[in-house]
Amino acid sequence: MSTERPIFIPVILGTVRQGRASEHVARFVFDEIKKREGVQSELIDIRDLQLSVTDAGEAIKEAQFSATVNRADALVIVTPEYNHGYPGMLKHALDTNLKEYIHKAVGICGVSAGGFGGTRVVENLLPVMRELGLVTIFWDGNFSGAQKLFDAEGKLLDESYVKRIDKFLKELIWMAKVLRYGREQVSL
Ligand SMILES: Cc1cc2nc3c(=O)[nH]c(=O)nc-3n(C[C@H](O)[C@H](O)[C@H](O)COP(=O)(O)O)c2cc1C
Q1: Which residues fall within 8 angstroms of residue 1, CB to CB, at 6 or more apart?
Q2: Ligand 1: which residue has its CA nearest to atom 18?
């Protein structure tokens, strides 16, 4: 057994919509992360954050969310595509932290009803990631036709996603390790 400190990769479920298919995607990715030795995860549902909607930014920090992001080595953001963009509530939640993100890895999973697997929302989220100080990887998760991808219990119906997410997570974990080394060993 490794004595190394586990890499910590929370998964952010980025929509509050009732009946959201993105929840199945987030749970699937969360379960896949947890299977890996030396990696820990937590599922952060932005619906649970109870953020004020009469203010914005770091002024409305949610202590536990900020502490979890601060402890993270990397994040997975699961975002549905809404009118080719990301949900406003996801941005509202992300905006409550700043230094907590810096020099940490991020991988994005786009979820769409259409056939492009949320590629447009992923592209739209990339500049936001950069401004937050997160380091994006060059693989994404792309979940097309999301309503039909899972059964009523949330079981994945297309096994090909297991292999694709494996590739995505390998890259994310590598980047998380490299950036942890950088944060701890390389002065700026
Ligand atoms: C306001 C809104 C806008 C949407 N816009 C798009 C879109 O631009 N492209 C698309 O493929 N699906 C679109 N959808 C469908 C969602 O992508 C679909 O519901 C998918 O399951 C992911 O969202 P969900 O987690 O809310 O279910 C939209 C859904 C909503 C509620």
Answers
A1: none
A2: 113
Each residue of 150-170: pLDDT tens digit? 999 999 999 999 999 999 999
Instruction: Count the neighbouring beta carbons within 10 Å of the beta carbon of residue 175.
Output: 21
Helices (H), 10-108: 22-34, 63-71, 88-94
| Closest-lying ligand 1 atom to the alpha carbon of residue 116 | 11
In short, whether 89's Cβ falls inside 6 Å of ligand 1 is no
State the Cα–Cα distance between residues 43 and 29, nearest whole angstrom: 10
Residue 29 has pLDDT above 90, yes or no: yes
pLDDT of residue 4: 85
Residue to mutate (ligand 1; options 28, 81, 84; most atoms within 8 A of CB)? 81
Whose C-alpha lies nearest to ligand 1, atom 11? 114
State the Cα–Cα distance between residues 91 and 128, nearest whole angstrom: 9
